[in-house]
Design a protein that fits this description.
Blueprint: H1 4-21, H2 26-43, H3 48-75, E1 78-80, E2 86-88, E3 96-101, E4 109-113, E5 116-122, E6 131-138, E7 141-146
Helix pairs in contact: 1-2, 2-3
Length: 147
């Protein structure tokens, strides 16, 4: 039978490797929680039920911190336009632009909007050169639809 600390360390390493394969950072937070649990269990051994509870609470704490940090970052994002200068990013619903690189959901494309090139997503496929209407903004991505 494996000691608990080794089990949690192996779990953390496997979650970190899985995090390399999957998009986003979420798996790394679980991996960090598992490795932290391994260190605590190695120093202060306690029952498996409490180890699972500790890992769960730590994972949820890291996920909440990630969410808070991303919310703060995305609300204050500045975008570098194709002219190389920093611009405060604002997308006004109803404004129009042109697709520069086709948008094929779930993949994003690029649009020319307000004289600059921006990343864009849509619910439908939109070909290069088509006119689009701005629907909303999600962080640094403009959500658009065909005119």
């Amino acid at each position: 039978m494996l000691p608990s600390g080794i089990f949690w360390l192996m779990t953390g390493v496997m979650l970190a490797l899985l995090g390399l394969l999957l998009p986003g950072l979420t798996m790394f937070f679980f991996a960090f929680a598992a490795m932290f649990t391994a260190a605590v269990v190695w120093l202060y051994p306690f029952a498996l039920v409490w180890q699972l509870l500790f890992f769960t609470v730590l994972s949820l704490t890291f996920l909440c911190l990630q969410w808070i940090l991303l919310q703060n970052w995305s609300s204050n994002v500045e975008i570098r336009g194709d002219d190389g200068a920093d611009h405060e990013f604002s997308a006004n619903p109803g404004d129009r632009g042109v697709v520069c690189v086709a948008i094929s959901p779930p993949a994003q494309g690029w649009i020319k909007y307000e004289g600059r090139v921006w990343r864009a997503g849509a619910d439908e496929e939109i070909e290069e050169g088509e006119i689009i209407t701005v629907i909303s903004r999600d962080g640094a991505v403009i959500h658009v639809e065909k005119v």
